[in-house]
Amino acid sequence: MESPSSESLMDTEVNIYTNIFIGSEVAIFVAKHFIKELKKLESFKRKDYRLSLQECFLKMDTLMLTKEGKKELSKIASAGRLNGSSDPDGGSSSFD
User: For residues 17 and 64, is the Cβ–Cβ distance under 8 A?
Assistant: First the structure.
């Protein structure tokens, strides 16, 4: 039996993890981090926008799977359940 590649394992983990959180929570997370992370990419600095967008979306997945990312998603989810707010901490995050 062939063992799964690390890419397929990450895809599985991303799918499982993002299914736990609803789309609006993920959208809030991405809204907080996307532009900042995009501007850091060498591909963006070279004006290779197609590649930089692909890399940045993959970076969002990677960030959400970190300990800090999971904690931030949980805070977003908790704040939304407790008070209907979509931004639990006024825009600050562990990645700033």
Answer: yes
